[in-house]
Design goal:
53% helix, single chain, Multidrug efflux transporter AcrB TolC docking domain, DN and DC subdomains, Multidrug efflux transporter AcrB transmembrane fold, xenobiotic transmembrane transporter activity, 1049 residues, disordered C terminus, Efflux RND transporter permease subunit, elongated, AcrB_DN_DC_subdom, nine-stranded antiparallel β-sheet, alpha+beta, transmembrane
Length: 1049
């Protein structure tokens, strides 16, 4: 045994089994407590980044809104700290400005600064509403509820309102939004002919209605015995009540009521919007939760309430739950848990096979302790992480790694007890023998994982969560392997008579054969082979470098594909239609129903073609607005159909004929909504971004694999201009007075607003619909003069038409045209397209348009941000890893030798992607970064062993042969257990696991290849270093060598 090992914290815990067991119990209890209270979510939400400023301004002109509001807000925000981009949309109804914060800046501080600046603007148009400033909040969809049936929309809406109220009474449910809800309105339509016959005007009608529908107080009666409030409550609440309002009394005493001269009805403001679910009229509810809610609890509460409510519905009205986001989360967490269990079983089996059943058992017991400790740190009271797909994946990644430390400790203790007897001193000696390299090995791995938290961008921050989970596991693996495991192994019996029969007898024979086989392999095959490698070390190095160059060449030649983010097929398809602004509601509804009908045909085709037991499109929600349609198709489970959502969407889109009046159409089936190609063309001049956009679209159409190309510029819409004639001026009219009368007739006059239940109901006065549909109607519109006479509009004003922009987009004070496109990543990568454009078309466009600015956004912008910060994180990790290796080795040169394993580990990761046909992606890079810390561990063990062999006087060659053979079992065990922990996930075919597989490939194959590097290449590099030392004449005395635990090469 080596030196005095009776002192220190390891020895103290090894002797005091009560302390070790109490520590273990404390960690387990804390972990279980945290697990019971930890929040569960699916894919982690992107943290809020935006502040929105909304200003309503019914000018009818996008340009007026831009110049009067958007430009002024943008100018006011110049110089405000923490702003990354300012994006605005101006149209005839107002302006929306979205401010995105810089990475790492506090959103609350930015919100306060923006509010201060915007509130101080005093030059906004008079008719503009007060700016509404809001900060983005963290919301996650839970599920969708649809009430549907062949009944009136009003009936469905009443049931939806009632159900929403019941849902919000539950403490778990915090937010429920309507889908397709129509805003109630009391409509009063008056014909101009009726007004003229009675000598009335629209203003007079509005005044009469307003005066008759009122609730107000008239003071108080104060007496000695108390007071009485004087009040009138004549508020009208529905069309029937408003119809009875007296408007005029004739000379013969007859009272003319509102119903006599107008059509009064309970109506909806957006009555032409359509909402359908599975082919029937519907009103929907979308249940959402805030950041700190638990999705499974919310979903359970919703199901319980809706289930009870369903029993109360009458015949003809049904309610259905779908798009339950808690289900895929449960499925994915269950999948990862199953993979974890399989991985643990494989790890323990390998340990039992190579070491000892009891050693394997106690190493396995450490795993729940490690995971419990990690969950404790994840709790809200500490780091506030959730149990989600990524943190669970962090546990799987850590599964094979955390046992490495325990395996090395256990193997060393087992070896010492075999040599020197099953004593406490042998246990302590075995643990201390490898305590330093294993501690620093774990620290290097933690550094590699934690370096991921330095990666910028939303996706970088989200995917760094699995790094935290893995790092927490590694931290507790240090505690468990150094303080708890030695205490358990101190009482380990090397053999037992009870193990000489039955299963144990079989297992002992199997273990004996494995041990014998490993020894034969080590001493009869590996050691002679290593001797040859050391003899021909230059040739060996050349071979490995050639492999490195070849594999890297596969990447750059495109044989190994690379994408920023792999395509992840969702369990739904979203169809979006955007119409030209002048499209009528009838056209919008007709084309929406066309897509709906095609979904039925597609369902039948797929059922017949693949002999499916159920239709793949299970739910179909159609929602229309003034000029857009959104159709959401919920699909059957992935294991119930032999095609992906993307393939279904592609086939559905192929069936769609040319659609009238549609500016843009898209079929989306990817969980990542950012477009693969998104290019911003910025300029002060609209003509510049228009012509540049057309040239770019034409070029993109030439690329194979590019589809769904869209321009952000909306087509110009016809606008009607009024100009007051001199005749009109002579009659006493002004431009503003003329426009006021026209607006009152055609846009309507909001007489009052009243509260009816949860609804705010507008009472609106206007011309009948049939009188405000065409230019002819407008020309003959009646304009009232100051003397009470009425004349046609065309006699007092010139009426003309022109094309104007209906919407103006701006980014950072320039007008912008955003060109977007989808890319089939199996055919071409988005980066290849951008590189090609950068070398050709972009240069031409900039030469032709001096003020044109081209900005790459979307996925490519995120890729650039992540790639840049990834390089920085990798450098930081490499520097810290070097320091952590140099400290225990007490050498400046040896860490470089150990770190040679990193690039060759990356070679293994690349080969793994090639073998699986999986492209290198962001997730692969995360795995590679983690790999850089893991692969040095075995090399550190080997070099530490080599240094010990040198201190006892062995030559370089003999020391390398002895250390390679001596550490063979430990190195094989750490590598195979790490791979075994990942193997079930690598073999997984379910869609839920596909986005995790690239990182698992990087880790698993990188570690396997690094094992060969550790056992073969690292010894060769050590010999090469000795050659270099001999050539430079740098030699150390034998005495100095013996006095140093770790010898500089």
């Amino acid at each position: 045994m080596h030196g005095n090992t009776s002192q220190g914290v390891i020895a103290w815990f090894a002797r005091n089994s009560v302390a070790a067991n109490l520590l273990m119990i404390l960690i387990l209890v804390a972990g279980i407590s945290s697990l019971l209270n930890i929040r569960i979510e699916g894919f982690p939400q992107i943290p809020p980044n935006n502040v929105t400023i909304k200003v309503d301004y019914s000018s009818g002109s996008a340009k007026s809104a831009e110049e009067g509001i958007a430009v002024k807000i943008e100018e006011s925000l110049q110089g405000v700290e923490g702003i990354k981009t300012i994006q605005s949309t101006s149209n005839g109804e107002g302006v929306t400005v979205t401010v995105t914060k810089s990475s790492g800046y506090d959103l609350d501080i930015l919100y306060r600064d923006i509010k201060t600046k915007v509130d101080s603007i005093s030059t906004l148009p008079k008719r503009a509403e007060r700016p509404v400033i809001s900060r983005e909040i963290e919301l996650e969809g839970v599920m969708t509820i649809n009430l549907f049936g062949d009944v009136a929309d009003r009936v469905l809406q009443e049931y939806a309102e009632d159900l929403r109220g019941k849902l919000l009474k539950n403490a778990e449910i915090q937010r429920v939004d309507y889908i397709g809800r129509k805003s109630p309105e009391i409509s009063i339509e008056v014909d101009e002919a009726q007004l003229q016959a009675l000598g009335l005007s629209m203003e007079e009608i509005a005044s009469k209605v307003n005066a008759a529908s009122v609730t107000d107080t008239g003071g108080e009666l104060l007496g000695p015995d108390g007071k009485l409030t004087i009040k009138t409550d004549q508020q009208r609440y529905d069309a029937k009540e408003f119809s009875t309002i007296a408007i005029k009394q004739t000379v013969d005493g007859q009272r003319i009521r509102l119903a006599d001269i107008a059509t009064v009805k309970d109506d909806f403001a957006n009555k032409n919007n359509l909402t359908r679910y599975n082919g029937q009229s519907s009103v929907g509810l979308k249940v959402k939760m805030y950041g700190k809610s638990n999705i499974t609890r919310v979903a359970e509460a919703v199901k319980r309430i809706v289930g009870a409510y369903q029993e109360t519905l009458p015949a003809g009205v049904r309610v259905e739950l779908w798009n339950d986001r808690s289900k895929p989360i449960k499925d994915r967490l269950s999948l990862l848990l199953d993979n974890s269990v399989q991985g643990i079983a494989m790890v323990i089996a390998l340990l039992a096979l190579f070491l000892n059943v009891r050693v394997a058992f106690w190493v396995g017991v450490g795993l729940p302790v490690i995971f419990a400790g990690a969950v404790t740190l994840m709790g809200d009271s500490l780091f506030g992480l959730t149990l989600n797909e990524l943190t669970t994946f962090g546990f799987i990644i850590a599964l094979g790694i955390v046992v490495d430390d325990a395996v090395v400790i256990g193997e060393s203790i087992y070896d010492e007890r075999e040599k020197y007897g099953a004593t406490l001193q042998a246990t302590i000696s075995g643990a201390n023998k490898v305590a330093t390299p294993t501690t620093f090995g774990v620290l290097t791995t933690m550094v590699a994982f934690l370096a991921m938290t330095l990666i910028e961008g939303d996706l970088g921050k989200i995917f760094a969560q699995f790094a935290y989970a893995a790092a927490f596991c590694l931290l507790f693996s240090l505690i468990e392997s150094k303080l708890i495991l030695p205490s358990h192994l101190a009482h380990l019996k090397m053999s037992s008579g009870s193990e000489n029969h039955g299963f144990f007898s079989f297992w002992n024979r199997l273990q004996s054969r494995v041990t014998t086989g490993l020894k034969r392999f080590t001493y009869d095959m590996y050691k002679p082979f290593l001797g040859v490698v050391l003899r021909y070390r230059y040739a060996a190095l050349a071979i490995f470098v050639s492999v490195l160059i070849f594999v890297v060449g596969l990447l750059f030649s495109g044989n190994i594909k690379s994408v920023f983010f792999p395509e992840i097929s969702a369990d739904f398809v979203t169809v979006e239609l955007v119409f030209e602004d002048d499209a009528g509601y009838g056209l919008v509804q007709r084309e929406a129903l066309t897509i709906e009908k095609l979904s039925d045909e597609l369902n039948q085709q797929l059922v017949d073609e693949f002999a499916l037991s159920k239709a793949p499109i299970q739910h179909l929600l159609v929602v229309t607005s003034d000029n857009a349609v959104t159709i959401t198709a919920g699909l059957s489970a992935n294991n119930q159909r032999p095609f992906t959502a993307s393939e279904l969407a592609e086939r559905w889109q192929f069936m769609v004929p040319p659609l009238e009046g549609v500016a843009r159409v898209s079929f989306l089936a990817d969980m990542i909504t950012d477009k693969a190609i998104s290019i911003e063309l910025r300029s002060k001049d609209n003509q510049t971004i228009d012509s540049a956009g057309k040239a770019l679209i034409k070029k993109l159409e030439l690329f194979n694999g590019v589809s769904g190309i869209k321009s952000g510029l909306k087509a110009a819409q016809v606008q009607v201009d009024l100009a007051l004639k001199p005749e009109g001026m002579a009659m006493g009219l002004t431009t503003s007075g003329l426009l006021k009368q026209v607006r009152l007739a055609y846009q309507g006059y909001e007489i009052q607003r009243l509260q009816k239940g949860e609804n705010e109901v507008k009472v609106k006065l206007q011309y009948p619909v049939k009188k405000r549909q065409s230019l002819d109607d407008l020309q003959y519109a009646r304009i009232r003069l100051a003397n009470g006479k009425v004349v046609p509009l065309s006699t007092v004003a010139d009426i003309s038409t022109k094309y104007v922009a209906t919407s103006i987009e701006r980014i950072n004070q320039s007008r912008v045209n955003v060109i977007t496109a989808d890319v089939n990543k199996a055919l071409i990568s988005p980066s290849e397209i951008i590189n090609s454009l950068d070398e050709g078309l972009f240069k031409q466009l900039k030469a032709n348009h001096q003020d044109l600015e081209i900005v790459i956004s979307g996925q490519q912008q995120q890729e650039a941000e992540v790639t840049q910060s990834f390089k920085g994180a990798f450098i930081v990790a490499a520097i810290v890893i070097y320091a952590l290796l140099a400290i225990p080795l007490k050498s400046y040169l040896q860490p470089f030798v150990i770190m040679c394993a990193i690039p060759f580990g990356i070679v293994g990761a690349l080969l793994g992607h090639w073998l699986h046909g999986v492209p290198i992606s962001l997730l692969s890079l995360f795995g590679i970064l983690a790999l850089s810390g893991v692969v040095v561990n075995d090399s550190l063990l080997l070099i530490s062993q080599y240094n010990r062999e040198r201190t006892i006087g062995l030559s370089v060659t003999d020391a390398l042969l002895a250390s390679g053979a001596g550490r063979m079992r430990a190195i094989l065990l750490t590598s195979t257990t790490t791979y075994a922990g990942l193997a079930p996930l690598l073999a997984e075919t379910s869609p839920q696991a596909q986005f995790l597989i690239p990182a698992a490939i990087s880790m698993g194959y990188g570690i396997l290849f690094a094992t060969i590097i550790t056992l073969v290449l690292i010894p060769a590099i050590v010999m090469l270093s000795e050659d270099l030392v001999s050539l430079t004449g740098s030699k150390k005395s034998n005495a100095e060598t013996r006095n140093r635990v770790d010898l500089a090469l």
